[in-house]
Design brief:
Strand order of the largest sheet: 12-19-16-17-14-13-20
Shape: elongated
Oligomer: single chain
Distance between the termini: 26 Å
Radius of gyration: 20 Å
Structural class: alpha+beta
Largest sheet: 7 strands, mixed, barrel
Number of strands: 20
Order of helices and strands: EEHEEEEEEEEEEHEEEEEEEHEH
Number of domains: 2
């Protein structure tokens, strides 16, 4: 059985929780920008939480169903319509064969996630169905969806989950301004003490040039660098370094002007310094930050970063206890 794409939305793609273990080969983990939202959608319809669904930035698709299905839409506040009638988000919904799932105008957030019972059953690549656009593989033919595509579905769940929902207390969305916790380090010594204070004191905005590889931020003051003699193998720009590995969430500031937070599809190595890393617990929040949203970076230490990760793990446990 398949689902037919009548309208593709803006850049709808097949995503799961990613393909870890290949970053040393230049292949990023990838997967859903907002992992918690995809997990919640899968649990609502009775899927394994790692099943493949659809990631829909800013606009939703229109999908025609060949079979009865359970669907759930989580993440961004994107009005859900079944045959034109609005339905609740974060809720398990019934869709009958022949009906059309579509969406209204985005009200908040940035990415919605659609889970269908049985999951999107495209062929796995390196253990994942996630689409990696730069490599042109995974997902549906390694690309965003187009009108006329027919997405294969796995076997329908025998357990019925209609009308279940995720309580608001178990949903995560960035604030306004959003706050992203950063663990300083790596090349922090390359900027002056005043520049470090200024980086955290400034209010930034999400730039329109933000995507699955990295989120760019504008509006703050330029960062002052410590003077140096460029080392052999590094470029002449003060933000250049001899090529170094990039962790997920690392914060670059090319030429000291606009911070870039590397995300799910980021490259693994390069020649820009990184003053720190957005902590693991806040990476999902970035996936729900639309252009022009104000944002601040907040300095934390390792103990605080680990505590935030423990809080996220506890939230996942509560979500599973509610839905499984």
């Amino acid at each position: 059985m398949t689902v037919e794409v009548l309208k593709p939305g803006l850049a709808t793609s097949v995503q799961d929780l990613g393909r870890p273990g290949h970053f040393h080969l230049g292949i990023p983990e990838g997967g859903a920008m907002d992992r918690l939202a995809l997990i919640a959608a899968n649990l609502l319809v009775g899927n394994d939480e790692s099943a493949a669904g659809l990631e829909c930035p800013f606009m939703g698709p229109a999908l025609a169903f060949e079979r009865d299905a359970r669907v759930a839409v989580t993440g961004a506040d994107l009005p859900v319509l079944i045959d034109g009638q609005e339905q609740p988000c974060w809720t398990a919904l019934r869709v009958r064969a022949g009906q059309v799932l579509s969406f209204g105008i985005l009200r908040g957030g940035a990415r919605a996630y659609i889970a269908i019972d049985g999951g999107i059953a495209t062929a796995p690549v390196l253990g994942s169905r996630s689409t990696y656009f730069v490599g042109g593989f995974g997902g549906f033919q390694g690309r965003v969806l187009a009108a006329g595509d027919r997405l294969p579905l796995g076997p329908a769940s025998t357990t019925r989950h209609a009308d279940r929902n995720v309580p608001p207390a178990l949903r995560r969305r960035p604030g306004n301004p959003a706050e992203l916790r950063v663990l300083p380090g790596l090349y922090w010594h390359r900027i002056t003490a005043a520049a470090g204070r200024q980086f955290f004191a400034s209010e930034w905005k999400v730039a329109s040039e933000s995507d699955r590889m990295g989120y760019r931020f504008t509006g703050g003051k330029a960062i002052e660098f410590v003077e140096r003699e460029p080392p052999f193998g590094a470029g002449s720009d003060p933000s250049n370094i001899v090529d170094s590995p990039y962790p997920y969430g690392s914060v670059q500031i090319p030429s000291g002007l606009e911070p870039i937070v590397l995300h799910r599809d980021a490259v693994s190595v390069g020649g820009y310094f990184q003053i720190g890393t957005v902590i693991f617990a806040d990476l999902d929040l970035i996936g729900q930050m639309p252009p022009n949203l104000p944002a601040r970076f907040v300095s934390v230490d390792l103990a605080q970063a680990l505590a935030a990760r423990a809080d996220l793990t506890a939230l996942l446990h509560r979500l599973r206890a509610t839905l499984v």
